[in-house]
Amino acid sequence: MERSAHGATGGITVALASAVIYSGVSVLAKFAYRYQLTPLQLLKERYIIAAIVLTVIIGLSNWRLLIPRSWREAGIMFCFSAVFVTGPTLLYFMAVQLLPVSTAMFLFHCYPVFAGLFAWLILHEHITRTYVLPVAVIAIGLVLLLGATFHSVSARGVLTMLACTVSYGLFAVLSQHVARGADPRTLGLFNQLAPALVLCLLTVGEPVVYPVVFSSRTSLLAFAGIGLSAAGGMFLFVQGIALIGAQRAAIIDSLEPLLSSVYAFLLLGERMKPVALLGGLCIVAGVIVGSLPRQTAAKHRKK
């Protein structure tokens, strides 16, 4: 019992550390955009740095995780990541360039709505109350968030982020089956390596690492921070899943938009209107409710 409790506490700490670290990526991207890179170029730098760092981390912790169980599995994971990670992340970075960080992050965390729809359409899973209730709460939050910021944010940015949430919802559903049985850390590594290669191919003829990255101490810290946050956040998140399970890790992960809003306020001076913040909190609440284990939800209904 003591070991179990200690493991749960450690898993919660690890998952929370992941959220704290990963939440900084969007804010750091805002700093990096000041150096006139396009979303495509900035994303390439992010994935190259993250892929190198994550390879080193995983190699030092357990080098066997660097090697897939078969060439077929490696090919499937690589192709899947090349399409379903590169696409949504590029849309995400395009939206972050156009929107305040807090608005972008809260919008992104609406993706469970679309994940549930794709699970129904593709996997023929049933629509249940445990899906309808969170969707209703998220919908209310979305109306409040966008209603409060309707005249002050980019419509193009909102549409781009909504396209990102749709594509990421599809990724969340398909990834459960594409990499079934694979270690999450190996899949996480492929999620960095494949986009890095794709983005290098899309920017062929350009430097692998742009000189602007080293143009000043601030730029170096911003670009390195993006890669380190992405790699460290990913590694800690999958470690958290291993310790406390995917559902509890997902609940803790839903704190990211709140943490990003705090970072944006402290570092960028971004302020949210009270109604918009309330909408964001509703979105987070909907995600948390949707991530609760079904047995727990049933207990609450009985009470």
Describe the structure.
The protein has 303 residues and is mostly helical. The protein has one domain. 79% of the residues lie in helices and 0% in strands. It contains 15 helices and no strands. Helix 6 packs parallel to helix 14 and helix 7 packs across helix 9. It is globular, with a radius of gyration of 19 Å. The C terminus is likely disordered.
Low-confidence stretches: 295-303
Strand content: under 5%
The number of distinct structural domains comes to 1
Q: Could you tell me how far the N terminus lies from the C terminus, measured between alpha carbons in angstroms?
A: 27 Å
Number of helices: 15
Structural class: mainly alpha
Count of distinct strands: 0
Task: Indicate the mean pLDDT.
Answer: 85
Radius of gyration: 19 Å
Largest sheet: none
Based on Cα principal axes, name the global outline: globular
User: How are helices and strands ordered from N to C?
Assistant: HHHHHHHHHHHHHHH
- Assembly category: single chain
Helix percentage: over 70%
